[in-house]
Amino acid sequence: MSSSISLGWLSLCIFLLVHGVASVEYGEALTKSLLYFEAQRSGKLPSNQRVQWRGDSALTDGSDAGVDLAGGYYDAGDNVKFGFPLAYTITILSWSTIEFQTQLQAKNELSNAQDAIKWGTDYLIKAHPEPDVLYGEVGDGDSDHECWMRPEDMTTPRTAYKIDDQHPGSDLAAETAAAFAAASIAFNPTDAQYASQLLDHAKQLFDFARNHQGVYQSSISVAGKFYSSSGFEDELLWAAAWLHRATDDQTYLDYLEGVGNTGGVRTTFSWDDKFIGAQVLVAKLVLEGKVENSGKWEQYKSQAEQFICSCLQKGNGNVKKSPGGLLWFLPFNNLQYTAAATFIATAYSEYLTAKRASIQCPGGIVQPDELIALAKSQVDYILGSNPQQLSYMVGFGSNYPKQVHHRGASIVSIKTNPELVTCKVGFDLYFNKNEPNPNVLDGALVGGPDENDGYTDSRSNFQQAETATVNNAPLVGVLARLA
Predict the structure, then answer these.
(1) Which of 156, 275, 329, 472 sees the fewest Cβ atoms within 10 Å?
(2) Catalytic positions, written as ranges
(3) CA distance 219 to 248
(4) Beta strands in 116-168 (DSSP E)
(5) How far apart are CA 303 and CA 88, in angstroms?
(6) What is the spatial distance between Cα 80 and Cα 138, in angstroms, rounded to a whole number?
(7) Is 398 exposed, middle or buried (0-12, 13-18, 19+ CB in 10 A)?
(8) Could you give the angle at the alpha carbon of 140 between the alpha carbons of 137 and 146, nearest 5°?
């Protein structure tokens, strides 16, 4: 009798180990994924700042243009504020918060998610001082990259760059419109006045993007080397889809139906290519019966689902997988694409479940739970279930990248040693040292392994070892769903 009881307890312990610990780990990863955004903050840090090795920085940004542009986020491991990926980051963070608000609330992370969004939108409000004026960059990638300095005492140029009616940037303006519109939905339940303010900015910027067309790097040439846009059609669709969701205004539906190009079947979803995002938002409308499942609307839905089928290895042109099972898209910072695709699958599973629907892939019918299984497999890989047995989320578990390509994390905190670390000295004292970073960049998702699951933990390996806000934003929603 006692042996059977012991066996029962053992079985229960194993069950809890398999089914319980995983959810605790996803919760921890969710917490850290949001904590990362606090390490990327620019400007005057708030009193509730949790990442204590950071300090105030770039407080006079915008002064050269007579505008207050303090705040916002540094995009990656450098100290430049690039508006294009920043706006995408805010759109995706908002989408994560909208779809998984209940789960975020249950894990006591909703306020942190909203804080992460608001740190971005407060800055974007300042960057949009007039209807047809938007500041799209502060700092310069070339001069910044010549130095290895922490943001708190950097001496590199902080030039502000803008688009306006004479120097357009439809992609930048429309992406920022999408960010404002999505954020307005995320804030509407808790702060309707702020949500209304965000929506006003979204509407103005969408009109600016439509009425003055062009790619933004033609106006902000310094951005082109780092975040060059491949076109603006996708951002206009993306912004229209978010504005429709925020307002239910027929004008935006008419725009979505009237365009000639719905994107076709895409191969990635990223800061540069939002077609899949727009397709998925329209597919949601089709599933809900708000538009017909025919013509242009059916086209959007079909294209969204074909991308998902390819991620599931059930399409006509499947996404490549590494031997260890990671969706592998491109050599440079691949995990940003993996995280974004995983979020698309996770969000779409919610839409399908709500309507008891499925996807007809070339490789067979797909149920919503298969999309969640895909998401779980990718997150598990990222968090350490991979051939390297390495967590690609910094600070998660005991084995994670220690030499992340990140100026602030790799240089001793200004609170520990306030002595100025000058432009070139930073390379000698910190960048070139084969030692762990003195500050742990908790929650940051690095670029990740190569197509054969290989990874080199070296500060100079920026293709794999650099982090970015665009990496983390989609992961927040996925982790909230899994936790």
Answers:
(1) 156
(2) 78, 405, 457, 466
(3) 33
(4) 134-138, 160-163
(5) 21
(6) 6
(7) exposed
(8) 155
Locate 297 and state its tokens: 């609307």
Token pair 């004008």 is at which residue? 251
Question: Distance between alpha carbon 116 and the CA centroid of its chain, in Å?
Answer: 11
Determine whether 13 is exposed, middle or buried from the number of CB atoms within 10 Å of its CB (0-12, 13-18, 19+). Answer: exposed
DSSP 179: H
Q: Are strands 327-328 and 359-361 parallel, antiparallel or unpaired?
A: unpaired
**Integer Cα distance of 238 and 307 in angstroms:** 17
**Integer Cα distance of 136 and 451 in angstroms:** 33
Taking alpha carbons only, the member of 144, 107, 124 closest to residue 43 is: 124
DSSP, res 63? G
Q: Which single residue is written with the structure tokens 């688009």?
A: 163
230 vs 441: CA distance, rounded Å: 31
